[in-house]
Design goal:
Length: 289
């Protein structure tokens, strides 16, 4: 995982040898692929020929040859996606392809998110008194730990539609009573949500959520119109818990290295007293479950 706040992905200047250029990278990747069954077996070099990659990607052989020769200008996103499929690139290879061709990381894919990996859930569960959850670019919560259940919300008891941080801030069941600093928290959340949605590119879930709340929440419309933009970082969050009373938590957000825009948010108790209060909540819940 990496701390957010601007792109901190791989540096193509550190790639070995000729793979540090787009042409070298393309040549290296096609040399690693086996020809289709029935293809001519007599080849001077291993891997696929240029015309075979061009056919797979649906581009002309001449234009693909220019790419390997460093000619023809930067390819479009559509062409890069076709090349990524033709060369059977994984997420890391696709990222390098975009960095070499356009000097920027690829847009996040808008495909439906897979279930959170068991290893990531184990990371959440290993934080016994630190509430933590994983959210999508549209701020839907898709995984959480026991501490999040007793401190923030019982997400398992909610319909999936309601497990959204922004909707809970501005929807009918707004969390105003539990957040003494609601205004500052809501403004910061919208500023970072706007950046997450932009990074995700075509994110229909985020667009639909913004449209919904502009219709239903005057406070959302007011803060959304400010057009503030912030990166995730760290800070303090004060909560007025109905059972434990006031809690102060230090929050940090981390991008999950999965290529689909997931982010893990961790709330660490700011003092030993806060940690003891959360431990008591967990103990009480264990006795009643």
């Amino acid at each position: 995982m990496e701390k957010p706040g601007g792109y901190t992905g791989m540096n193509t200047n550190t790639l070995p040898g000729p793979a540090s250029t787009l042409g070298g990278f393309l040549r290296d990747r096609r040399a690693r692929l086996a020809p289709e069954p029935g293809a001519p077996s007599r080849r001077r070099t291993p891997g696929l020929r240029r015309e075979e990659v061009a056919t797979r990607a649906g581009v002309s052989v001449t234009w693909y040859t220019w790419l390997e020769q460093g000619r023809g200008g930067p390819p479009s996103d559509e062409v890069l996606e076709r090349l990524a499929r033709a060369l059977e690139l994984d997420a890391a290879g696709r990222e390098v392809l975009y960095l070499l061709a356009q000097q920027r990381p690829p847009p996040l894919r808008a495909a439906p998110l897979p279930p959170v990996a068991p290893a990531l859930q184990r990371v959440l569960d290993a934080l016994p008194t630190s509430p933590a959850y994983v959210q999508t670019p549209a701020w839907d919560i898709v995984a959480w730990n026991a501490a999040a259940t007793v401190v923030l919300s019982d997400y398992a008891a909610m319909p999936a539609h309601e497990r959204n941080v922004i909707r809970r801030l501005f929807g009918p069941s707004a969390m105003r009573a539990s957040l003494p600093d609601w205004e500052a928290h809501a403004r910061f959340a919208l500023a970072t949500f706007r950046v997450d949605a932009a990074r995700a590119g075509d994110c229909p879930e985020a667009a639909a959520l913004a449209a919904e709340l502009q219709e239903t929440s005057a406070e959302f419309r007011r803060l959304w119109a400010e057009n503030e933009m912030r990166s995730h970082g760290s800070g303090l969050k004060r909560i007025q818990h109905p059972l434990a009373g006031p809690l102060t938590l230090e929050y940090s957000a981390f991008a999950v290295d999965s290529g689909n825009g997931l982010r893990m948010v961790v709330f660490t108790p700011a003092s030993p007293a806060d940690a003891r209060a959360i431990a008591t909540l967990l103990s009480d819940r264990a006795r009643t479950v």
